[in-house]
Structures are given as C-alpha cells and as structure tokens.
Automatic annotation (TrEMBL):
Coiled coil: none annotated. Belongs to the ATPase epsilon chain family. The gene is atpC. This is ATP synthase epsilon chain. Residues 5-84 form the ATP synthase F1 complex delta/epsilon subunit N-terminal domain. F-type ATPases have 2 components, CF(1) - the catalytic core - and CF(0) - the membrane proton channel. CF(1) has five subunits: alpha(3), beta(3), gamma(1), delta(1), epsilon(1). CF(0) has three main subunits: a, b and c. InterPro entries: ATP_synth_F1_dsu/esu, ATP_synth_F1_dsu/esu_N, ATPsynth_dsu/esu_N. It comes from Sinorhizobium kostiense. It is a peripheral membrane protein. It is found in: Cell membrane; Endomembrane system.
Length: 134
C-alpha cells in the first residue's frame, strides 16, 4: 500500500478538501504532475483543469480548478485555487460565462495579452470537454 500524505484544496470561498491521500494529479502550467508521499519540495502554478485525488481508502475525487498554485512538501501538498468546485457541482453555464468574459477581453488586447487570453480560453474549453458530459 502506498504511503499517504495530507492534501488540502482551498479556494477563496472555502476549504474543499482536507484529507489523507496517496496520490494527487495536478494540472500544472508546465504539464500534469502526480504528487505522492515524500515528493521533492516544489511550488508550481496551476492552470484550469481537473485535480484528481486518490484518497487513502482507495476512493477518488475530482475537482475543477480555474488556476492557482500548489505548494508541495514531502509530508503534504496544499493547492490554493483561484476558484474550484467538485466536478459533480460544476454548472456548464458558469464555465460558458467565464469563456464569454475572456472572449470579450480579447477585443482591443495587445498581441502578448491576446496570446495569454487565447491560451486561457483553450484551457477552459478543454476543462469543459473533460468534465461536462456531451
């Protein structure tokens, strides 16, 4: 059996999860990363995506996050999300509204900002494809 560690998922609104887990998959900006017990100390930014958590009892939970950062230590991991929700609670209209707001920002944006906004739209769209049934 894999060693467990403490994982906390926090959004500005609330603490979504604080539990002993054996594995957490985080959508880091440089690519997905799997965190396990005794992981090397790392801090990373998080892009919009799905955080998959494998609990110490073997059950799995999935959360949609909309950015943030993760602080990883050998004894635990804390993910501070800009916004997060359990995938079962994700309202498709909320995601569509977020995309619409970012699309509106594209109007008149400079090239560098436009590139970042287009990437963000792509990440939000992919998140929707992953968590919202067709």
């Amino acid at each position: 059996m894999a060693d467990s560690f403490n994982f906390e998922l926090v959004s500005p609104e609330r603490l979504l999860l604080s539990a002993q887990v054996t594995e957490v998959v985080i959508p880091a900006t440089e690519g997905e990363m799997t965190v396990m017990a005794n992981h090397a100390p790392t801090m990373t930014t998080v892009k919009p995506g799905v955080v998959t958590v494998k609990m110490a009892d073997g059950k799995s939970e999935r959360f949609a996050v909309f950015g943030g950062f993760a602080d990883i230590l050998p004894t635990g991991c804390t993910l501070l999300a800009e916004s997060a929700v359990h995938v079962d609670e994700l309202d498709p209209s909320v995601l569509e509204n977020r995309i619409a707001v970012v699309r509106a920002e594209l109007e008149g944006a400079g090239d560098e900002k436009k590139t970042r906004l287009e990437q963000f739209i792509a990440e939000l769209t992919k998140l929707g494809e992953i968590v919202i049934p067709a």
